[in-house]
C-alpha cells in the first residue's frame, strides 16, 4: 500500500505565527498544498494573501521548489498579486498562466484565486516546467476542478483567521488590567487566564494551580471557593438563558503574613454552555493591597491636579483622615486643607466623600507597566 510522503516543511518566508492559525489549520496547509501540487503536476506551489488597501502581500505557505528558492518564491508572490487584482469581487475567478524566469530557469506559473472576503483574497500559485501550452492544459483543468473545494475550505480559513485575531485583541484587553481574570469550563478547568491571573497563581499566595484548575492555598478557603465555583457551574448548566438575578458568590482568600486577603468573585457567563469545553464561569480576583496612588494618577491628571494634590487625593482614598494625611505628607493640617479645596475646585466636588467616590469609580485599572499617555 502506497504511503503519502509527508509535506516538506514551509520555507521560513512562508511560516505563520501561532497567533495567526490554530494548529489544525496550520497542519492542514502543508497537506492541502502538497496534494494540489501533485494533482496539477507542478514542481511546487505557494499560497499568498493579498489586501485591497494596498498593503504588501503576505506569504502564507510554500511547498516544493519555491520552499527552497527565495527568488522563485518572490516571483510567485508578484504574479499572485497581479492575479489578485482581477475579478476581486467575483464569486469564482479563473486560473491564468504567466511566464517567469529565475536565473537560467524558465517556468510557467499557474495562478488560481481561491477565496476572498471583504478585504482580502487568497491566491494559489504553482510552478510548472515550460513547454507546449497544450501539455499544460490538463494542469489548468485540474486546477479549475479543485477550485470549488479549495474555496470552501479557505473561506473557513479566512473566517478562522479573523476570529483568532479578534480573540487576540480581546486577550490583549484583558491582559492590560491588574485584575486577575480566569475563564472556566464545566469541569472547572482554566481555559483562559490573563497575565494578572498568571502572576497571581505563580505567586502561590492566596491561590495556586491544581492540575488544569486552581484552588485557594488556605484549606478552609479552598472549600468555600470550590463550593462557589461549583454552584455557578451547576446553575449555568441548568439554564437556557442567563437570569438577571443570578447569584455571584464572593469569597475572601487569606494570604501569608499581614497581607490583605484576596477577593474572588465568581460569575456565570451570559450564554449557557452547549459542550463540556465551553466557558461556564468567570472568576475575578481582586488584590486589595494595590498601590491606590498609582492607579489614581491617570484620573488625577485628567483633572490637572498637581503632584501634591495627587498625593493628598491618594492618601484620602486609602482611608486616611485629613490629620493622618497631613502627617504622612509632613505638612500642617491647614496646608493640607488648602490642597483639598483646590482639588474640590478642579474636580467639581464639594465634600471629601464626593471626591473619593469620583476618584474610586474612575480608577483606570491597567497594569502599571502599561503606562498612560494623555492627549
From TrEMBL:
Domain of life: Bacteria
GO molecular function, one term: DNA binding
Keyword set, alphabetical order: DNA-binding
Protein name per Swiss-Prot or TrEMBL: DNA-binding CsgD family transcriptional regulator
Keyword Transit peptide found: no
Residue span, HTH luxR-type domain: 302-359
Entry-linked SUPFAM superfamilies: C-terminal effector domain of the bipartite response regulators (SSF46894)
Keyword field contains DNA-binding: yes
Organism the protein comes from: Sphingomonas jejuensis
